[in-house]
């Protein structure tokens, strides 16, 4: 079996990252222009935060969130309903051998960032962070 000499490890390959970013930009442009003729979808201003592709580049998972986070489930349903048309529009703008199947997932990174900020604002955490280092090792 042939091995990839340039990629070792568990993370995505350079090609997966490049194609994912290209799909992200293309999908963002398609959604921004309102090329899909669905009033439910065009009602939302959708941010495409990231696109992760499978190793064979045949499946692309887009992490999306409507602007302000309002109506996230409705926007996700509209995206899933229009996935074949979005796939066609994305594939038309790209030069890939196969048009990737598009899957849509809500992007929760903003929620995690808010939780992290809240955690760092907690008085007990701030007290631990501000504690002077006395130079002793507790190993």
TrEMBL record:
Q: Does the keyword rRNA processing apply?
A: no
Q: Which Gene Ontology CC terms are recorded?
A: cytosol
Q: Supply the SUPFAM superfamilies for this chain.
A: Ribosome-binding factor A, RbfA
Sorted alphabetically, the keyword list is: Cytoplasm, Ribosome biogenesis
- Which residues belong to the signal peptide in this entry? none
Main localization (coarse) = cytoplasm
Specify the superkingdom. Bacteria
Q: Which InterPro entries match?
A: KH_dom-like_a/b, RbfA, RbfA_dom_sf, Ribosome-bd_factorA_CS
UniProt subcellular location: Cytoplasm
Listed GO MF terms:
ribosomal small subunit binding
GO terms in the biological process aspect are: maturation of SSU-rRNA
Assembly mode: Monomer. Binds 30S ribosomal subunits, but not 50S ribosomal subunits or 70S ribosomes.
Annotated NCBIfam families:
PRK00521.2-5 (NF001802), rbfA (TIGR00082)
* Family to which this protein belongs: Belongs to the RbfA family.
The UniProt function text for this chain reads: One of several proteins that assist in the late maturation steps of the functional core of the 30S ribosomal subunit. Associates with free 30S ribosomal subunits (but not with 30S subunits that are part of 70S ribosomes or polysomes). Required for efficient processing of 16S rRNA. May interact with the 5'-terminal helix region of 16S rRNA.
Q: What is this protein called?
A: Ribosome-binding factor A
From which organism does this entry originate? Paracoccus yeei
